[in-house]
Design brief:
This protein has four domains: about 140 residues, DNA ligase i, domain 1; about 100 residues, Orthogonal Bundle (DNA ligase i, domain 1); about 210 residues, DNA ligase/mRNA capping enzyme (D-amino Acid Aminotransferase, Chain A, domain 1, 2-Layer Sandwich); about 140 residues, OB fold (Dihydrolipoamide Acetyltransferase, E2P), CATH 2.40.50. The chain is about 35% helix and about 20% strand. The chain binds adenosine monophosphate. Adenosine monophosphate binds next to strand 1 and strand 2.
């Protein structure tokens, strides 16, 4: 999907306004005007055009400001593995708005309940305020730097310091700047800027900034735009760090980018994901004449283990968070598992809870009781073992393009299985359905979730970072009992408990994420599968996330299921259900099967809290539609 190639960048950029001159910092107003335009359309093509216009202008006038602009468009402060995040709480933001506008907290709260968006409340509060003199215009460099400082503040009196810094920015805001500033601070821009759109706009801007672009034939324009987009996405997949990509993009021609920005230990890749399958014959259908291999599907947490050539070892989660501090016991032991000839590497693994006496895997629930922060080795009660199933980088070389058969060979020849610590994933390479059934049964007896079935050899067996690929299939035991895959869903609200559940929430409103519209769409009410203990934990955990009104980006439909309390989208549940049906009340996948109705889960049952999943990383509305359509009776 490319922008209109006849679009004139110079004409469009006049709309960016302001007297922004060459080599001067990018005015924050320019960015906010672009945000406003993106927010006012739902068309992906138009959003891309606005971004391309912005990026081309920044590359021409103030290229040194491009990195901050890109980060602000995706509303991040740094790569995920550095762990610096915004997400400032509403009460703190309201305090800063009150201080900078002179309005009372009560008035702000009332407005917020009415409008549902704190950014707009801030903007309206500023507009109604009289100022004696015009403040100095904000620049993107200054705003970005201050946002980073705010995120870094911790410890005593940090809350007051945060309020002061936010207030400092707010007093200088003009027009719609306060609206986007507050949303940036909340951690959610909600203007339809998916990261993939930002990436493709960046690639297209690199092509369109060429002064000759307007003179090219249409076919050449389209080819160049498409090649640049493919290259940038491929580069990002193996090196997801704008800190490295953006400077290289400004320095080298785009066709050299893949060789300049190569993957490296220390920078986590987005892991490859698997497609669910419902039956064993489906596996044979999918792979037909291709070679495939089966592995146990371990029930733990994904762990990407990196070692740089100078010996630094780190472990990253499936969301690219640095988990090294969570696993000090593992970091210590990894040296023993490495053969002397192995220098640098990236391993794809699963960390599972481990019973050292019986030498066996323990259920996931036990792993989830392990502390996530400030873990001291001497206090660890839950032991962890690592199952290695893939090797993505070895001794200075990327293995992503190698077939799995070769990656597995290198994994086995470069590392050493170590009792109670490190094992290779158990595998079986037979294509006979009876053998696969037996292997599946044994995997379950060994406390695994089922099987992963992977393309083994040839072009289809490469490693595809960040993709939910059909070259990896997952078969869980429940699929075969007709229950289908579990889903990971976001808690949007709750209902007060009655009877035995009087002092806790008795049921919850869940939703799925739609990456296209960046909305959470309601999917079901759930009240089954919870122990008393878990309800208590959930009450304590969720109470701090209560918000006075549903978020603007909650899609509730015309006959909404209204809970007693609403929450910020923070907590994720794994859930199973009997089947899926079309519903006038719930909105999952609305517009995809029926123009005004969504899909809902029948007889949903709670399985567990998924602390390792971000709300935006959960089962998407597209996947829910797939689940619905895959039902035998549909
Ligand atoms: P799911 O979370 O249900 O989409 O299943 C995919 C997850 O299974 C991966 O993200 C891994 O954390 C986990 N997993 C367990 N065993 C394996 C294996 N042998 N190969 C790949 N992934 C595995």
């Amino acid at each position: 999907m490319y922008i209109r190639t006849e679009m004139s960048i110079s004409k469009e950029s006049a709309l960016l306004g302001t007297n922004w001159k060459k080599d001067e910092p990018v005015p924050y107003a320019v960015l906010c005007r672009t945000f406003e335009k993106c927010e006012n359309t739902t068309k992906r093509l138009e959003i891309t055009e606005y971004l391309v216009t912005l990026f081309v202008q920044v590359m021409r006038l103030s290229p040194s400001g491009l990195l901050e602009i890109v980060y602000m468009c995706i509303n991040k402060l740094c790569p995920d593995y550095e762990g610096l995040e915004l997400g400032i709480g509403e009460s703190l933001l309201m305090k800063a708005i009150a201080k900078s506008t002179g309005r009372t907290m009560k008035a702000l709260k009332d407005d917020y309940i009415l409008i549902g968006d704190l950014g707009t409340v801030a903007k309206n509060s500023k507009t109604s305020q009289r100022t004696l003199f015009r403040p100095k215009p904000l620049t993107t460099v200054h705003v970005f730097k201050t946002l980073k400082e705010i995120a870094q503040l911790s410890g005593q009196s940090s809350q007051n310091k945060k309020v002061d810094k936010i207030q400092g920015l707010l007093v200088a805001c003009l027009e719609n700047e306060a609206k986007y500033l507050i949303r940036q601070l909340e951690g959610k821009l909600r203007i339809g800027l998916a990261e993939q759109t930002v990436l493709s706009a960046l690639a297209q801007a690199v092509v369109m900034k060429n002064p000759e672009f307007d003179k090219w034939k249409q076919q050449k324009k389209e080819e160049q735009l498409s090649t640049a987009t493919d290259i940038l996405k491929a580069v990002y997949n193996q090196l997801p760090s704008y800190d490295m990509i953006v400077p290289a993009l400004l320095q080298y021609p785009i066709d050299e980018l893949l060789s300049k920005c190569t993957m490296r230990p220390g920078i986590p890749l987005k892991p490859m994901l698997a497609h669910p399958t419902k039956s064993l014959p489906e596996i044979l259908d999918r792979f037909q004449d291709q070679k495939f291999t089966c592995e146990y599907k371990y029930d733990g947490e994904r762990a990407q283990i990196h070692r740089t050539s100078d010996g630094k070892i780190s472990i990253y989660s499936r969301n690219s968070e640095d988990m090294s501090v969570r696993y000090p016991d593992i970091i210590d032991k990894i040296k023993k598992w490495i053969k002397p000839t192995t220098t640098s590497f990236i391993l794809d693994c699963e960390a599972v809870a481990w019973d050292i006496e019986k030498e066996c895997i323990l259920p996931f629930q036990i792993l989830s009781t392990r502390k996530r922060k400030d873990v001291k080795e001497e206090e660890i009660t839950v032991r962890v073992a690592i199952y290695g199933f893939d090797c993505l980088y070895l001794n200075g070389k990327s293995l992503l393009q190698e077939p799995f058969v070769e990656r597995r060979r290198l994994l086995h020849s470069s590392f050493i299985e170590t009792k109670n610590e490190f094992y290779f994933a158990t595998h079986m390479d037979s294509n006979d359905i009876a053998d696969i059934q037996t292997f599946l049964d044994v995997s379950i007896e060994n406390n695994c979730e089922g099987l992963m079935v992977k393309s083994y050899d040839g072009d289809h067996a490469t490693y595809e970072p960040s993709k939910r690929s059909r070259n990896w299939l997952k078969v869980k035991k429940d699929y075969l009992h007709g229950l289908g895959d579990s889903m990971d869903l976001v808690v949007m609200g709750a209902y007060h408990g009655r009877g035995k559940r009087t002092n806790v929430y008795g049921g919850f409103l869940l939703g799925c994420y739609d990456p296209e519209s960046e909305e959470y769409q309601t999917i079901c009410k759930i009240g089954t599968g919870f122990s008393e203990e878990i309800l208590k934990t959930l009450y304590d955990q969720l109470s701090s996330h209560v918000i006075p009104a549903p978020k603007r980006f909650y899609c509730l439909g015309d006959n909404p299921a209204t809970p007693d309390v609403w929450f910020d989208p923070v907590v994720v549940f794994e859930v199973k259900c009997a089947d899926l049906s079309i519903s006038p009340t719930y909105m999952a996948g609305v517009g995809q099967i029926n123009p005004s109705k969504g899909i809902s889960l029948r007889f949903p049952r709670f399985i567990r809290i998924r602390e390792d999943k971000d709300p935006e990383d959960t089962t998407s509305s597209g996947q829910i539609v797939d689940f619905y359509l895959q039902q035998p009776n549909i």
